[in-house]
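Help needed: design a sequence for this.
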């Protein structure tokens, strides 16, 4: 491998590791439950159980990959999530990074986060629940789709 390319890769790996450490530090400082998760726990015990099942499954899936960023099997948010889950003091931070970054709620407006979290969790657990009915696509178009099942 060309020395210049190798130097760039090493610099990129160092920057990624530094970013990872900063993410872990920032999220570890969180000491409250994510508001959407708190609302979910209050409104629906069944949805809360699905959230816990989905998060646990995603955690196990990530653990099954190489945790080294340079192997490109996990992204920086997944790596931070695992580190925060492994810390007994940082579960609030782990939940925040899971909801915002792994489930993608960071891109959702604040008023829509509760509904978006419930939807994301239901989709994830639908695939985990072997007793659920299969999903049948009812209609698909360029702008929308609907399902039956």
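Sure. Designed sequence:
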């Amino acid at each position: 491998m060309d020395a210049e390319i190798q130097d760039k890769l090493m610099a990129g790996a160092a920057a990624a590791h530094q970013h990872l450490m900063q993410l872990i530090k920032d999220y570890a400082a969180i000491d409250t439950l994510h508001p959407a998760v708190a609302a979910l726990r209050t409104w629906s015990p069944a949805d809360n159980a699905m959230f816990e099942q989905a998060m646990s499954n995603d955690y196990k899936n990530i653990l099954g990959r190489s945790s080294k960023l340079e192997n490109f099997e996990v992204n920086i948010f997944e790596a931070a999530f695992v580190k925060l889950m492994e810390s007994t003091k940082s579960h609030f931070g782990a939940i925040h990074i899971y909801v915002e970054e792994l489930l993608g709620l960071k891109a959702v407006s604040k008023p829509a986060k509760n509904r978006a979290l419930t939807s994301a969790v239901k989709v994830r657990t639908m695939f985990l629940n072997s007793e659920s009915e299969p999903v049948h696509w009812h209609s698909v178009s360029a702008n929308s789709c609907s399902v039956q099942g």
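The helical segments are 3-28, 35-43, 45-63, 76-86, 91-102, 113-128.
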